[in-house]
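Retro notes, structure queue

What went well: the backlog is down to a handful. What didn't: a couple of records were mislabeled last round, so from now on we paste the full input next to the output in the thread. Example, using DUF3048 domain-containing protein from Blautia aquisgranensis:
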Amino acid sequence: MRRKKTDIFVGIMAACVCMAQAIPAFAAQQDLVGMNPDGETQAETQVKSYLTGENVPESIGRRRPVAVMLGNNISGAPQSGIGHAGVVYEAPVEGNITRLMGIFEDYDGLERIGSVRSCRDYYLYYANEFNAIYAHYGQASYAVPYLEQHVIDNLNGIKMGNLAYFRTTDRKAPHNAYTDAAHLQAGIDAMGYSQEYKEDYKGHYLFAEDGVEIVPEDGITANLVKLDNFTDNHPWYEYDAESGEYKRFQFGKEQIDELDNQQLTCDNIILQYSSCPPYGTDSYLNVDATSGGDGKFITRGKAIDIRWEKDSEWGITHYYDKNDKEIQLNQGKTWVEIVQNDRVDSVTYQ
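Corresponding output:
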């Protein structure tokens, strides 16, 4: 196994009335420093993020995340804040377009998250796997029974209006609904939702240990992964061996976060093959999020076959290799791609 460079961050603390003095850089895995009532320094405990496996402050890593529905047709892209999501799901919706769901634990500094779009029933299953608070602006009819039964804590823009969301003037509706930390908190407080994980929640994925890099054995080459199963945005990923990350593209160009114009990247890609028939004669899709199936795990320029299964209907999806061993992910961001069973052959690797 290869060793991975430790990320470094620089902390700067204001000091003195007349001048500011820079504090030396500390390794990211050290505790963050604060002040107690006696004026003495105290460390904030670091924990392993349930989303990325990385070391993060406990105030972030043990606060329930929010799972935000994001538009992803040509009018809905680029999205704002998506580069800060620890996990992103992409699944097909009606009209051959896709919709994204970003799962965020560290979102306090984001001035915009969105645009926020409507719920599809299968996304409720995915969000619940992370014990997330689900943020959406409206819903398809097939999601209504689940929302009425309150299978998941959710913030519905149709009902909460300007309390949990706001609209901008730089885009036309419905692509101009956004949220941020203050609006999310207002909605969460209004609904009385706990922001602590359930006591029995132990996380979703298995991650590599600090400093360890996972390179799948016997994997096929996957330096370029093209998802032409999605016929509207035609997304693809390109592996950057120097950073160890995959760069994300769609609509023929780099996919960026509109907040900082930085290209989206991830360390892990999971392809989850699923049945996606329409609901009868309706255009809405009945995506199977529970029955299990096959897929691919892609990381560090390699791809291996996997299978997925859930431990219960509303429980966590687990991914296993050919030896029936649950896979370990590299620390970092993960994209989960829901690939239609009848379009698996449209995914190519180079």
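Agreed that this is the format going forward. Reviewer comment attached to the example: The first helix runs from residue 58 to 61.
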